[in-house]
Design a protein that fits this description.
By secondary structure, the chain is an alpha+beta fold. The protein folds into two domains: about 120 residues, no CATH class; about 120 residues, Lipocalin, CATH 2.40.128. The strands form three sheets. Strands 5-6-7-8-9-10-11-12 form an eight-stranded antiparallel β-barrel. Helix 2 runs antiparallel to helix 5 and helix 3 crosses helix 4.
Amino acid sequence: MKKALILFILILVLGGIILSQCSGEKHSNLSGNYVDYWEGDSIVGDPALSEQLKDVMMTIVYKDKERFASLMSYPVGRPYPLHNIKDSASLVNYFDTLVDDSLINVLKNTKLSDWSEASWQGYTFAEGTYFWFDGGIIGWNYISSKESKLLDTLIQKEWSTLPESLKGEDWTVFDCLIPEDGPFQVIRLDCRPNYDEEDQYRLAFYKKGRNLNQSEPDIIMLGKCDNQESGETQIFSFHTEDNSKTADFIYSPLTYLDEEGLEFSLHSKQGAETFMAHFGYWLDLIK
């Protein structure tokens, strides 16, 4: 009888250890004293999804960096000229820049019932202002205060490398294309967000071998962006001042993160030239 009691106690102890280890796998860095801000809350009719969304929010609120990195889809797109986040190790290091107290407070006050499915992008709350979920975090729109300051610093740094002729008129940096072949080493893409006319965007072409710092571009084109109804793609089209040359390309979120890049078309009286280009970073090219 005594041996049976001892054996029963050992089973209980071992069972408790195993259970604690299993529960710890979900939130590996959380202490046992955390507050469940979403206790009793759920998405009606979908308890499994409720648990997944709760896991995501709890992981962020309690700064479980490794768990957060494991839930993210890569690469994580960041607004230019910030670099995209390529892998989980980079995200763990970048976590304190990406996540701040403002976001944490928002999540603490967000109910599971606030989440809803939105077309092809998966599930979100606050109309996608923060991030999207579809079996994992598939899109991160939130910009923390720390990241915003870093973004402003990089924009000013990039702007300082341009000649005066490209400044003014509310222009600001937008993106950068690196052709895989052809005569150009880089194509700048700038925009003026508050401009309501068609020529809201600008392409600046630089031929290979040029020192880019303070250099005038070889070709300048102005153009527009047509947003498709689905919201998944944007068609950019450009022209020189005398309309002797035109250019166009199609942008989508998948294109931006696709290492294979996009197809860029350049047209002139001599004919059409099509080449592949991928998104890059102007400051990485400055010497």
